[in-house]
């Protein structure tokens, strides 16, 4: 089965570095189709050129986050959900393609959808764990929620609760990196979307609660005992010297893409 990976991304100094790292992981994964959704009013040159040279099978989409839903300069990073409209655009594209496929089902038969943010770290094993997802599969996520890891707790092969330090009674206290869903299930439940107005920590639940129950979750990664993905976050580069140099007319050549 094909894995459709949906990645929201937005322009910032580290964007090309993040996409480079991510693409080098994906190049090692068979049958992966990368759906890159830019948070921008139109596709950018940087991402267009990057994807064309990436060697990956990809689809390049864009969807600008409406201003009232977007973080403003100075807002704490958790105030509003990030990437929601972009993931929804990816879902819209996939549902439409699957429907156009007209039930012949070959290209999309048993396909799997994974939401991979551009800054996390993914092991290759993770993709083999998710590849045979029937409905929704789940696994631990490292370095998230101010903990070493969060994970579903499995008893007798079933998820019975979640190991998390914060609001464990959320419908699905799982980070975006901790689950994959089958395309068939998503097509069969056209009302399942990410709620761009979801309260902090409820973005994943807003989507998953329209698709499954906890009892139906398929635990992967050795019954959720292995960490195969890490919620890493990239430091924002300092530009103090650059700004000082710009004032002297000696800034780095703006024609060089970073
Ligand atoms: C955590 C989760 O891991 C995210 O999946 C979830 O979307 C987010 O919280 C949330 O609650 O909204 P975090 O590391 O804080 O993640 O979020 P980012 O990595 O900054 O953003 C998630 C994705 O959205 C990234 O792929 C990023 O490139 C993209 N993004 C971010 C945009 O497309 N537009 C933005 O303005 C900001
Ligand atoms: Mn992140």
Automatic annotation (TrEMBL):
Q: Which domain of life is it from?
A: Eukaryota
Q: What is this protein called?
A: Uncharacterized protein
Species this chain originates from? Pangasianodon gigas (Mekong giant catfish)
Cite the source lineage.
Eukaryota, Metazoa, Chordata, Craniata, Vertebrata
Full protein: residues contained? 75 to 332 of 332
């Amino acid at each position: 089965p094909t894995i459709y990976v949906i990645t929201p991304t937005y322009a910032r100094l580290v964007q090309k570095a993040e996409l480079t790292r991510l693409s080098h992981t994906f190049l090692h994964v068979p049958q992966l189709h990368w759906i890159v959704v830019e948070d921008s009013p139109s596709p950018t040159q940087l991402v267009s050129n990057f994807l064309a040279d990436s060697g990956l099978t990809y689809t390049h989409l864009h969807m600008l986050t409406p201003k009232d839903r977007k973080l403003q300069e100075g807002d704490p990073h958790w105030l509003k959900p990030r990437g929601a409209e972009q993931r929804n655009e990816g879902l819209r594209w996939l549902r439409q393609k699957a429907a156009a496929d007209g039930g012949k089902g070959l290209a999309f038969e048993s396909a799997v959808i994974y939401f991979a943010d551009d800054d996390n770290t993914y092991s290759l094993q993770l993709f083999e764990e998710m590849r045979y997802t029937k409905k929704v599969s789940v696994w631990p996520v490292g370095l998230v929620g101010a903990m070493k890891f969060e994970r579903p707790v499995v008893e007798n092969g079933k998820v019975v609760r979640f190991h998390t330090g914060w609001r464990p009674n959320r419908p699905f206290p799982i980070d975006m990196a901790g689950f994959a869903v089958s395309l068939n299930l998503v097509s069969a439940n056209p009302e399942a979307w990410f709620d761009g107005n979801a309260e902090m920590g409820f973005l994943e639940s807003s989507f998953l609660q329209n698709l499954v129950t906890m009892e139906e979750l398929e635990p992967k990664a050795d019954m959720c005992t292995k960490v195969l993905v890490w919620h890493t976050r990239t430091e924002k580069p300092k530009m103090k010297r650059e700004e000082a140099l710009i004032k002297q007319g000696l800034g780095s050549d703006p024609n060089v893409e970073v």
